[in-house]
Amino acid sequence: MSKTCCDDSCCSPSEAAPTAEVVRDQVRAGYGEIARSGSSCCGSEASAGACCGSTAFAPERLAQALGYGQQELGDAEGANLGLSCGNPTAIAALRAGEVVLDLGSGGGMDAFLAGTRVGAGGRVIGVDMTPDMLTRARKNRDAYRKRTGLDNVEFRLGEIEHLPVADASVDVVISNCVINLSPDKPQVWREIARVLKPGGRVAVSDLALLRPLPPEVTGMVEALVGCIAGAVLVDETESMIRTAGLASIVLRRKPEYVRSLESFEDPLYRKIAEHLPAGTSAADFLTSLDVEARKT
Q1: What is the pLDDT of residues 260-292, one digit of tens each?
Q2: 2 lies in a domain?
Q3: Which terminal residue of the chain, N or C, has fewer Cβ atoms less than 10 Å from its own Cβ?
């Protein structure tokens, strides 16, 4: 099993590009640590920047900075692990009775928020490849049921490149800071197009590059698990979506997310800054990106 970014040895550039399976093992290990600890990677503040969305400040504070309201945080009590880089349910315009698929559902935060919006007549399916995350999400589901009286959210084990979901069965696909972790992003977008009903839509928050990162950063295991090394250019993201057969594509850059992590001196972003050209910062290279698209 690969290292889980719990010590400085994870921060060194790798000697060769990892295979897709190695990438998945690294990501699964890092997020398994988060699921078991209920906080940042390895459960220590010192490593708080080591996993996607994890920061040096509390998960609730990050969620509020991303636009989650106090009511939403209450509805998703216990499921917020500080892994967000956006708020996909805010842009999804969910309606009662819809079927929603959450890619990389983690502790279930966005799945539960979607569940309250689609109501008893709707359904939410969360997919995650990390068994420990599924265990945590299913425990959180018990609290969600008691709190809302709804039994409309389920969680399935699976990779987002090979979704355990039937063709043309989903109204809306959401995802929060997950697709950048995939070693085969074009396949993810093809899977999204496959499972969407005609007219179905996508509401994704992710990290994307404004320009290529230095190789010293892309070679860090820590930056990979932290969603940064796996990010691709904004234009490349749009090309993958279009090639998958989706249309009505809208991309909104949200640079304030990266700037906020820099201002709070997130540990991972501090380490990345050491490898950037003089006079630049992570916000010159990286942005949070809201993605909307539709299957025609």
Answers
A1: 777 656 677 777 778 888 998 888 988 999 999
A2: no
A3: N
